[in-house]
């Protein structure tokens, strides 16, 4: 392992980030008074709401010019959600639209009454917005379990249609002077959608509502869009991702266990295998899930694919100097309502992820989320990442650039594995409502591994072998027999 060659500034940033993340625990909801209403200290001078239906999760972006109409500086901006929506929101991030280098704003879900139908995310400006000042912010988030198939059941060889419910007016706790909403579908086949006056205007796969004039805080206009979706609706209820670091072997081992379900339209008749094989010759559009493609770190090796029955041979793994790709074909095509639990794993050279610092410590940098990379996307309701560090690792600190609101819990503990003595240090992070667009986000862990802890295991193994040898020798010297009576 080569020493880390990084600048003092980067070391300072990493140290600060790791130190703050080390003490981070459950990103729990903050409590507000039961009669809470966001203070009317802002107005939205202009707002553009973009809803993307191009993947099997919904991505929403709200770009808004915020103006402080109070007499004092303000730094808390609230965004409302219904109780049903807030539990399905994921990847909530807020950025300065005019400063690409500025980091994301702090944002968290807040709660003032668990049974209230309106919940809020609270956004904190890095610097309080002065009276009369304006700032343009970009709010982005995702909805999981966003669609409903209509009809709910279709024949095996027919197309699937999905329905999405939304509000023509963007959710806001403040009055909005001017706004418009854009819907981007994955297909131009949109047979049904809500009409209001002369809106929307349709251009291919895009619907545009507005612009609308001033609307009061909390304005809602329910709407619905139904569109063709000839792709699977892939949903992972739980992903358990284990990462095991070995200094002695110079290896990082990955294993991922998936509980996958297709949330699209069910089959209206039993699955016909003959019809499915015949269709393979002309490859028509289908909403069935036939394969998964998992890009891995270049140099990955020893990939495997198993399910509850055992090893799955319908897979292909190729690895060269330019790429590493694991292509999976489940034992059967997945249609709406069908489930498929499976496990994949692989090994990689530790030099790809692990570096030794000039102070003698170690820094591990791995993707927080990998998994399949599909055209239609993949959504994850729950992700559990467990990193096993070498035995005796201490002074552990960690940081991830996954949105803080998605992290539900973190912990550092001890886990015992094969031939361990005192157990290996483990870092566990649980997250919710993530999508495959976070595949490139990183998990960084710094730790120290004293030489004494590194030598403990071979010394214990050597001592055990010597004890076994000595015991065997001692037993072999014992003479067992009976002396005849004289």
From TrEMBL:
<comment type="subunit">
    <text>Component of the oligosaccharyltransferase (OST) complex.</text>
</comment>
<protein>
    <recommendedName>
        <fullName>Dolichyl-diphosphooligosaccharide--protein glycosyltransferase subunit 1</fullName>
    </recommendedName>
</protein>
<keyword id="KW-0732">Signal</keyword>
<comment type="similarity">
    <text>Belongs to the OST1 family.</text>
</comment>
<keyword id="KW-0256">Endoplasmic reticulum</keyword>
<comment type="pathway">
    <text>Protein modification; protein glycosylation.</text>
</comment>
<keyword id="KW-1133">Transmembrane helix</keyword>
<keyword id="KW-0472">Membrane</keyword>
<dbReference type="InterPro" id="IPR007676">
    <property type="entry name" value="Ribophorin_I"/>
</dbReference>
<feature type="transmembrane region" description="Helical">
    <location>
        <begin position="459"/>
        <end position="482"/>
    </location>
</feature>
<dbReference type="Pfam" id="PF04597">
    <property type="entry name" value="Ribophorin_I"/>
</dbReference>
<keyword id="KW-0812">Transmembrane</keyword>
<comment type="function">
    <text>Subunit of the oligosaccharyl transferase (OST) complex that catalyzes the initial transfer of a defined glycan (Glc(3)Man(9)GlcNAc(2) in eukaryotes) from the lipid carrier dolichol-pyrophosphate to an asparagine residue within an Asn-X-Ser/Thr consensus motif in nascent polypeptide chains, the first step in protein N-glycosylation. N-glycosylation occurs cotranslationally and the complex associates with the Sec61 complex at the channel-forming translocon complex that mediates protein translocation across the endoplasmic reticulum (ER). All subunits are required for a maximal enzyme activity.</text>
</comment>
<feature type="signal peptide">
    <location>
        <begin position="1"/>
        <end position="21"/>
    </location>
</feature>
């Amino acid at each position: 392992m080569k020493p880390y060659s990084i600048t003092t500034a980067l070391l300072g940033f990493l140290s600060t980030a790791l130190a703050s993340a080390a003490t981070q625990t459950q990103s729990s909801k903050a409590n507000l008074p039961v009669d809470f209403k966001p203070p009317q200290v802002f107005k939205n001078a202009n707002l553009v709401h973009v809803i993307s239906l191009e993947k099997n999760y919904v991505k929403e972006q709200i770009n808004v010019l915020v103006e402080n109409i109070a007499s004092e500086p303000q730094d808390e901006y609230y965004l409302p959600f219904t109780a049903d929506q807030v539990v399905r929101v994921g990847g909530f991030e807020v950025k300065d639209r005019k400063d690409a280098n500025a980091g994301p704003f702090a944002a968290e879900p807040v709660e003032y009454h668990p049974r209230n139908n309106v919940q809020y995310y609270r956004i904190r400006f890095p610097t309080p917005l002065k009276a009369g000042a304006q700032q343009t912010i970009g709010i982005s988030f995702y909805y999981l379990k966003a669609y409903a198939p209509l009809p709910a059941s279709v024949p095996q060889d027919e197309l699937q249609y999905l329905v999405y419910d939304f509000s023509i007016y963007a959710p806001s706790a403040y009055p909005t002077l001017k706004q418009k909403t854009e819907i981007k579908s994955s297909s131009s086949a949109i047979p049904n959608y809500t009409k209001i006056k002369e809106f929307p205007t349709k251009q291919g796969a895009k619907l545009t509502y507005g612009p609308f004039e001033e609307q009061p805080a909390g304005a809602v206009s329910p709407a619905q869009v139904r569109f063709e979706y000839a792709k699977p609706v892939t949903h992972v209820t739980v992903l358990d991702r284990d990462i095991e670091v070995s200094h002695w072997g110079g290896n990082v081992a990955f294993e991922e266990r998936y509980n996958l379900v297709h949330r699209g339209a069910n089959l209206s008749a039993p699955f016909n295998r003959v019809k499915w094989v015949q269709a393979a010759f002309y490859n028509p559009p289908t909403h069935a899930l036939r394969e998964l493609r998992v890009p891995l770190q270049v140099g990955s090796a020893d990939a495997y694919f198993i399910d509850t029955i055992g090893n799955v041979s319908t897979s292909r793994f190729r690895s060269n100097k330019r790429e590493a790709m694991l292509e999976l074909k489940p034992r059967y095509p997945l249609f709406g309502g069908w489930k498929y639990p499976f496990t994949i794993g692989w090994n990689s050279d530790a030099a790809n992820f692990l570096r030794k610092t000039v102070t003698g410590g170690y820094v591990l940098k791995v993707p927080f989320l990998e998994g399949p990379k599909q055209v239609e996307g993949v959504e994850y309701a729950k992700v559990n990442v467990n990193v096993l560090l070498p035995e005796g690792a201490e002074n552990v600190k960690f940081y991830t650039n996954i949105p803080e609101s998605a992290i539900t819990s973190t912990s550092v503990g001890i886990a015992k594995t094969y031939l361990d003595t005192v157990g290996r240090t483990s870092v566990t992070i649980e997250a919710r409502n993530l999508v495959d667009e976070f595949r490139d986000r990183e998990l960084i862990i710094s730790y120290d591994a004293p030489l004494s802890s590194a030598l403990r295991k071979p010394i214990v193994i050597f001592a055990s072998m010597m004890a076994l040898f000595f015991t065997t020798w001692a037993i072999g010297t014992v003479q067992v027999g009976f002396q005849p009576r004289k």
